[in-house]
Amino acid sequence: MPAESAPILAVSSVSKRFGGLLALDTVSFEVQPKEIFSVIGPNGAGKTTLFSCLVGAVHPTTGSVRFRGEELSGLRNDQIVTRGLVRTHQIVKPFRDMTVADNIRVGVLYGRLRLRGSKARERVDEVLGRTQLVHRAQAKAGVLSIGELKRLEIARALATGPEVLCLDEVMGGLNPAEIQQAMVLVRALRDSGLTILMIEHHVHAVAGLSDRLVVLNFGKKIAEGRPGEVLRDPAVVAAYLGDETKEEARA
Amino acid sequence: MMALLRRHPALLPGLVFSAVLLLAPTFAERGTQNDLWNMAFFVVLAAAWNLLGGFAGQVSLGYSAFVGIGAYTTVLLAQAGWSPWLTLPVGAALAAAFSVVVGLPTFRLRGPYFTIATIGVGEAVRVIASGLDFTGGSSGLRMPAGTFDFTANYYAMVGLALGTLALVAWLQQNAFGLALEAIRQDIDGAEALGVNSTWVKLEAHAISSALVAVAGGLFATNFQYISPGSVFDFRLSLTIVLMPIVGGMGTLAGPVVGAMLFSYLQIKLLASPTLRDSYLFIYGGLLIVVMLFEPRGIMGLWERLWSRLPRRRTPAIAEARGAG
Q1: In this structure, which CATH number among 2.40.50.100, 3.40.50.2300, 3.40.50.300, 3.40.640.10 belongs to the domain A1-84+199-251?
Q2: pTM for this entry
Q3: Which residues from A are below 8 Å from B185, CB to CB?
Q4: Going along chain B, which residue ranges are E strands?
């Protein structure tokens, strides 16, 4: 990954305050095209809030997000989606009374591609195929298993035709075989030209997939780099496993 | 032909319904034609409301405002010498414009807060119409002489009702209908897939309010006299909402079934000296029964009974239904 190429996504000094809680504290990083870039950190570190800020589901209190050079602040979620920056949700949000195919169709019809007619049908079929949901196409989303729901969540985001796809814990709750499948899918998506941002707790998946990653703790970036270096960083290990001296000081 | 009917189970009842309405002037007496006119009027109101309230789940209790805008536009322009027919598109355009003015602030509200805001809008319009001079204040306005033609008005109202149903059926099947459905099920989820929810709601509101205003204009020509108490009445707004809810929200046939039921009820109740003052009580009771036992209305009940009918079914379909 040539570091000098223009970043597809540039996050600079993004902060988000919810009342008295500073959920994100001046977080900055840049993501290169076709990178698999992970965001990790303990629970409550601000990872999901960061994703929400990127796509405009919530607006950062201060700071800026630039996507392909364009400033995104002030744009609504749907406007950012139609520009090609899409996220999935950790807590899956399908339209439960719609079929799987119709769930995907919403993204195909209204996302960045806005396809109609036979092109839209082809795209729905293509997404069903890539996420291995063909056999469930006509099932109501409300009856899917958790593994299928996670794939549908990816499928819905993929349907919109993103250039940057933000995956929020798509491997949470999956069994080892399903995690293996999900890793294959993520790699295939990148190989097809997408840039992937992912929040993931699975160290094996993070280490195996990520080109680079950032670590958040209490809303602050505490490390950034390649997985081999970052995952051995004492500050990162302390954030995950707890630093005894700090715990004592707080108690 | 049989295959077509089997694929579209609504086609046969739809054709019968259309034929009865269109042919009624050739065989039915005038009193029956009046009742059918009233039913067609209710079908327009219920089916148009259902576009926003049923499909998109945005329950508005202010739709009498659009009936009134259509009715007042027709009477005021007719008094200025316009042909009543030419006033209809003007009323529709004014209602659509007003729906955008109302929608821009109120569509930011979610759930019951939107509904409460629409009650305020409907009442505000009624109070304003009662207070202004050019609307005739609370005593209302009369159509100029020579504008009454029942048969023409009947065909126009029936045509509007069938046209509204055809439009809703078409919208239901294309991208717009899917966006409304997505908004109803999860508005944040719809936006996360690129749906501009405010814009889609504004479009649905404008289309449905324009249709309702045309019905209001025809109402004015048919009754020759309007007042804030007749066209801006909150009880009218309430009836507009109850018809699709009782019939089955978010379905094509639900508002039609609701309109049939309520126009029949209204005729029976208004004719009875003991019941005419208590009809809201009966409507309320009906609403409670529907909410408690079949929130999907009469169409939901029908589907449930239909699926229980003993008949040949492939195991796969039976299984899918059992799971769903």
Answers
A1: 3.40.50.300
A2: 0.89
A3: 95-98
A4: 141-142, 225-226
